[in-house]
Write a structure and sequence with these properties.
With 177 residues, the chain is α+β, with helices and mostly antiparallel strands. The chain has one domain (2-167): NADH Oxidase (3-Layer(aba) Sandwich). The protein is 31% helix and 16% strand. It has helices at 2-8, 22-33, 52-59, 88-105, 126-134; strands at residues 44-49, 74-80, 109-114, 141-149. Strands 1-2-4-3 form a four-stranded antiparallel β-sheet, sandwiched between helices. Helix 2 (22-33) packs antiparallel against helix 4 (88-105). The longest helix has 18 residues, at 88-105. The two termini are 25 Å apart. One of its GO terms (molecular function) is oxidoreductase activity.
């Protein structure tokens, strides 16, 4: 069941060195390409990175929250074209979610690193820092990068008791169920 998938999914930042099988990569690609988008505009593009040197550069894209990408066997850079859709950010976020859920479904771990709106250590935007490396067109932006691989250790699911049920309101804010 889908809810079981959600219950066990956790952010994984430590991966073992196993290569991801081509058939699993094909399923991840299919999941991204099936992601719903506003008006079917599909403003996203995906760059699959397996080259260790490029992964190391991705890990240095911002001072905090990207270092784990260097240890991920596969990084998927989720880019968007703002000229294609005014909701490219949302469409890229949906694709990232589909990718992470598909990864969990096939026995892989993943973690999301936001790039949009973040700064590189040099003070320029993280997207600008990666633009030349990835040969990204000038009008494209990087929304996020997802690191994917086999987890190096198992991580327990969050217990149901830890769910923030106080965030649920009925009919109006602050009306509890």
């Amino acid at each position: 069941m889908f809810i079981d998938l959600l219950r066990r999914r956790r952010s994984i930042r430590n991966f073992d060195s196993r290569r991801i099988e081509p058939e699993k990569m094909d399923l991840l690609i299919e999941a991204m390409l099936r992601s719903p988008t506003s008006k079917g505009r599909r403003p996203w593009e995906f760059i699959i990175v397996t080259d260790p040197e490029i992964r190391a550069a991705l890990a240095a894209a911002k001072p905090k929250g990207a270092s784990f990408l260097g240890g991920a066997p596969v990084c998927i850079v989720i880019c968007g074209n703002p000229d294609t859709s005014d909701v490219w950010i949302e469409d890229c976020a949906v694709a990232a979610t589909m990718l992470q859920l598909a990864a969990e479904d096939v026995g892989l771990g993943s973690c999301w690193s936001q790039i949009r709106g973040r700064q590189h250590a040099t003070g320029i935007s993280a997207t600008s820092a990666l633009r030349q490396l990835l040969q990204l067109p000038d009008n494209f932006q990087i929304a996020s990068i997802i690191g994917i691989g086999y987890p190096s250790a198992s991580v327990l699911p969050n217990p149901e008791e830890a769910l923030p049920v106080q965030k649920i309101h009925e009919n109006r804010y602050n009306h509890r169920r």
